[in-house]
Amino acid sequence: MSYPLFLVDAFIDQPFSGNPAGVCILDKEQPASWMQQVALEMNQAETAFVHKGADGSWNLRWFTPQVEVSLCGHATLAAAHVLWQHAGETAAILEFHTLSGLLSAKRIGDEIQLDFPADFPQSVATVPPALLQLLGGKPHWFGQGRDDLIAVLDSAEVVRNFVPNAEQIASFTSRGLILTAPGDAGSGLDMVSRFFAPKVGINEDPVTGSAHCLLACYWGNRLDKIHLRAQQASPRGGLLTLDWQDDRVLLSGKACTMLTGEFHG
Fold this sequence. Notes:
CATH superfamily of the largest domain: Diaminopimelate Epimerase, Chain A, domain 1
Keywords: Isomerase
Family: Belongs to the PhzF family.
Helix content: 10-25%
Active site: 46
Strand content: 35-45%
CATH class of the largest domain: Alpha Beta
Radius of gyration: 18 Å
Low-confidence stretches: none
Structural class: alpha+beta
GO molecular function, one term: isomerase activity
Organism: Cellvibrio mixtus
Number of domains: 2
């Protein structure tokens, strides 16, 4: 049996940037164990699996090389891009049934906008000793979202120059660690960030949509803004536009197909 398979760069700002995701189009639901094996074979941060339901909406699941995850922004963006560009989908808005509920995607110019649940971080008084050691001191603010920890640093330069230790980060995280700081002066950016999730097989994620559901809430409150521009300052890098609306975050970005083919297995 063969299935259409794509490699897509999501949240790009130039060629060979953003976050690569695998997208596999299925004719019906497949066992989680099989999808996990495909994701391991693809060896991307996430591989998305989509198949159409009886009501015309799409079912969507995401897998890292090690585990299934409950929310993934860049692989959702990649899946929507593939359905519009390669699968003949013509609907103006795509709906996806996922582990995080009903999500949607729509095209706005040359970008795709995702409608995701907001993630409001709560302050945590005790900073893990391993993180204090990695940072060389206490962060400006430290908190916990649904799945990830967030440490707010004083400058974008400190975020960019941070040297991670995957073993230490895995020792105190349940999924991931977000480092963030205000954007550089004059850059037009409200924030910069990096994301590390060695616990689920991702030492550093290039661009993380789900983390920005948390970042939009933190920076929206801090800056008193509902429209924000964000850069994930990983080596590949990526840009996102965020619109925070009560308990939802709209994430917008571009995508580009890099490879097309078929998976046999």
